[in-house]
Design a protein that fits this description.
heterodimer; A: alpha+beta; Jelly Rolls; globular; B: mainly alpha
Chain lengths: ~575, ~280
Amino acid sequence: MVISDNNLASITRQASRPKRWDDPLDPAMSDATLDMLMATEPFASMDERAFPAGTPLRGILRADTAVREYSRGEIVLRKDDYGTSAFLVLEGEVDVILRPEIDPQLLGRAPSVKKGFFARLAQLWNNNPEPEGWSKKSPRASDNPSGSISNGNGSVYLQDYPQIISKAQTAALKKGQMFGEISALSRMPRTATVVASTEKTRLLEFSWEGLRDIMRYDSALKKQIDKIYRENSLKIFLMHHPLFSHLDESSYVQLCEEAQLESFGEYNWSGAYLRLLKDNDPATSANEPLIVREGEYSNGIYMLRAGFCRVSQKFGNGERTLNYIGAGSVFGYEEMVNHWRNPQQEMQSLYSLRSLGYSHLIFIPTAALEKFANRKLSEADFPSSPVPKSMSKPAAARSPDDENALSASLMEFMAEHRFFNGTKSMVVDMDRCTRCDDCVRACASTHDGNPRFLRHGPMIDNLMIANACMHCVDPVCMIGCPTGAIHRTSFGGEVVINPATCIGCGTCAANCPYESIRMVEVRSSKGEFLVDEEFQPILKATKCDLCVEQKSGPACQNACPHDALSRTDLTQVTSLTQWLKRK
Amino acid sequence: MAKKEIELTRRRFGSVLLTTLSIAGLLAAYVIYSPMYPRHAYLSGWALFAVMLFLTFFNLRKRVPFLRIGSASFWLQLHLYVGAFSGALFFVHIGWSWPAGIFHQLLACCFAVVFLTGVFGLWISRSFPRMLTDSGYETPFERIPYARSNLRQQAEALVLAGVDGHTSPVIAEFYAKNLGMFFTRPCNRWAHLRQSRAPQTAHAFQFDEVRRYARTGELEMLDQLNDLVGRKHMLDYQYSLQSALRLWLFAHIPLSYSLLIFSVLHIIIVYAFSGSAT
């Protein structure tokens, strides 16, 4: 069929293409505020010429920052929240609550917004007749938690602030100090709660992409953030670890100095992984950065802070994967304890450790461990072994009833495809799946008439991991989003896309190693494809949002009549084994 | 045995036991009370109509996945056990004798077909998925035409590459006569449903036959073509079983709605022509 200009005009409508900075974090940011910021450190010392013409410092500050004002006792950040913002203290002080942990109720945790019965029922007739109709209903994602709490003036206060703060160990942050940057940049949950401790505390909120851009062109800020990491995040992390929780302040300072920060693999690891797949090169251990080699002298322990590592052991001519470990795991402790118990025993690494994609580790040398680690730790408090007992046995010796036992081939499959990253992966038991596609239809009926996943994907035996967003522990899709449209929800941590701020650049879809994000053509409510001035279609990124708005949970799982589909946490081997064992 | 597995086995055993006891109770009640209450057919009729309405709701439930009214798997379990009970209730209602009159016979036939297609659907839903998985090849149903067309293009390109005026016409003729249509449409549907290997064996014989007349240089091409034929058989196998898994619903669901309509007519007729019923 030949499409004439007339035909094209009848099925399309011109619209302006969304651009970076179309939707600033603070639309009310005035020139006076901007001038004030430019005169404030660290921006005052920054060399504006180092910034490219397309991304000037003023432009970044105008679009990606907002000045927020807080009263005494008002919560700025809550521990365990996912957030994409960092903060700079402009005036006043804030308290970082180190310990004890605050009761979540006191932090004003509120249930996420779910559709009520009538709103859900109305989907039967309210859904756009055309798939992916243009919608600009969602507000821009921000770390300002006021939106989630329904009190009078929209602010969230810590109840009994003076009493709580008097009993808590806190760290005060003053004018010019920054916080929340590590969490924003590393895509990790907040490690502590931060509360304003003075009246009229003024903070500058940065979106993570703004902070990233400034760090790219200003090396001083980058160095400062590294320093802050050592002084704050590393210290908090070590304080909460059973091995070091008994130490005093001065010991923590020494330990932080002796700890070494190491990163392996590419920060945006999906690119390298996708290249391997494209070249048809199996993503096996040989292609992964080696951290520790089996049999070599073990001169300390590695504490995994972010990312994933593969634990393997020599087997025949290759290496057999025994486990994959994520943030919070400790490698090398077994060898250390064996040596403490029997000093004659050589400290040789029992396993090899390789970085799967990007990993960030803290290395504590043996000398520091000898000095600071709690040797009286009971076995129950030991860091868990990087290899479950069932997997450390030879395959033939494993009991079929062993809860944790995964077949060696399944373990390799999980590691090679990097599936251990998924907290809500869509696993399908193909021995039960009748290929009826009820799951696909259910997804479509809850998402603008367009299913957000493909019931297709890599298979091993009867197990299929479908192309659906896995809501990763390390969501690489969030790297590079120019507007921050892709973000984690504050409560469940699901990775969702805000259609109002998505400009359809496709960065997230290109980054996703699992092909779970699709770029779709946007239509008007009348079904016309929206096109720009050059008649190029306007796209938006779509993916599974785990039905965050639905009280019934993921529609796909609920719609499967044969219990063949499950949203499973693949970061835990046990979740998958238990699901596979059901009849 | 894992704890979850035991729970599931227990639940299934409990459901089967409950259904069996319900059917036994129904039959006992029929044997004991039917001589005393000659108009029991009205009661069993209304009960059967209510059960049929409930069974039909399963299909409607699938259309509202966003409502919190239990998972589809829970509804399917109810559908199966209540469906089994409805069979017994049907026989109680008709008094263990085949009804007289065309309309009533049509109604009874309709119920029987819905019931039997349900049993057939349950059987293939439990057995075909494993067969599909064991075949070692998986493709979504919607992509099968694309995969078939892709295979045909590869096969045609292979055969056309050999037609250069120098090689023998044997392979091209063999393709045109035996494989042209095979690559164009789904084939051997019934054979695949019966898990028969006859079509593959027939093609193997045909390839052996052609090999005798092919030149040495053409043997490699024949091997490649044979490989494509093998893949087409796998695709046809997927098509046959996946289409069966979908098509049985095209009999079961429309007939269920027809049954409901016939049942309403039946109720109207019964009350219209038996004044003493009220």
